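The material for today's practical consists of a large collection of protein records. There is nothing in a record beyond a sequence line and a structure line. Backbone structure tokens are a discrete shorthand for how the chain folds in space. Nothing more is needed to start thinking about how sequence determines fold. As an example, a complete record with its sequence and its structure tokens follows.
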Amino acid sequence: MSHRRFLYLDSHLLTAYAWSQGHLLVEDSFIRDDSTLAAFSRYLTERRHCQFALLVNHASEEYIRETVPFLFGNDRQALIARKISQYFTGSPPATAFSLGYEKTRRRNEKLLFAALTNPADLDPWLQCIAAAEAPLAGIYTVAQLGGQLLKKLGGERRGCLLLTMQDQSIRESYLRHDRTLFSRMAPLADSSAAGIASSFVTEVGKLRQYLIGQRLISHNEHLPIMIVAHPATIPAIREACPEYGHLDFTLIPSHAAAARLGLKTLPEDNRCDLLYLQLLASDPPRQQFASASHRHNYRVAQLRRGIVGASLIALLGGLLFAAHEAFTAHELRQESQVRQIQADELEAAYRSIAATFPQLDIDNDTLHRLSTQHATLVRQQQHPEAALRRLGQILDQTPAIALDRIEWQIGRTDPGAAADAPGIDGDDESIVIHGHIQSAATAREALTRFDEFIDRLRHNPDNQVRIVQQAVDMASERALRGGDGIDEADRPQSFIIEISRTAKP
């Protein structure tokens, strides 16, 4: 069963309905007196977690049309509240419906102000609802739902008169563009089929004259009329309808209307209460007559449901995250087990292979140290052939350079270490060249040939060339010139150069 409940209030009785998927079931009925109000309070207390909507069918409805300046937001709401307080005294349940905007006058808005002008008929019931803290979604009227009923039944939307039977009375509403402009209740003295048919036709004539007087229609205007009644009463109404004039009757059986609305509980008589309740359940209007104080518990219930919903979503998200983490942990455990099995298999294979090796009389640490030293010695067993070949090519290009001695070593020697200290491990090779310049007539020529030799050595980016001794003394106290009376050709023009580079296999 759905948690939604609908309260239908007429002039004498309040009926409570439970709605579920197109079915409307009567739960209880209450007459306005002290004992019944107490029973109604108990009914509400037992169902305080349900959502209630109140549908009112009273004769004390008043409609006022007015054009107001174009406003929006808080300014429009303030204007509507001020107009309602001006038109309707006593703070009755009231609201305003927009009828559109004028196109020729600064887009002024046309409003229809509606109110239930006798709040004493509603106050006892509303007080019980507030005392029981039952969530009231809104207060609606039968006349308000007339436009939705007309739209569902396919009536004329430009202007139509809708007649239905409610509570031993006839509800007469004039609608235009699915908006009720005027509505009233007419008493029904005769409940027979002929009496109902006669009352419908009589009320149509009276109402047409009233609409003409209110300038809602003209004298020659065609007036569509839609009547909804029980299928057994339709033939009598059709027989009573006039066959001439400006009236166009459309008769719709209430059972056919219920099928169009999706109502599965068919009306048992001419009353159309169930049709309006079905409209309220399936497509409630956005506007309603209840004030903010009347809907306080409904807002609290909405907030509570929102918090519960958010909590459930958070809980579901946490459960999903925990499930994902648990699944990930399970996969990691399985992968760890597989890796452990593979490691055990590899360890067993290693042991089986190691068992075939010849046994050595040394421990593993000593064997590891000897293997490391052997790798170091192998790495240091480089030959100077490649380095000497590159040096020979450069010497071929500079025939003025003569070599006296070549010192080659692999690895670097720490200059601060002792003479018998071993070289530092590494792949760097070092060549120290001792030589002199031959066939040099002057110091300038010797310096030129020496610089050319150095440039050729540095042409290879892998070489790092350091001049240990210059071929020509470049001391500042001596002038670099020739022909000063000394035989410069007989001077020794020796040099020492160190070339270091990373050795490649």
About this structure: Residues 414-425, 482-486 have pLDDT under 50 and may be disordered.
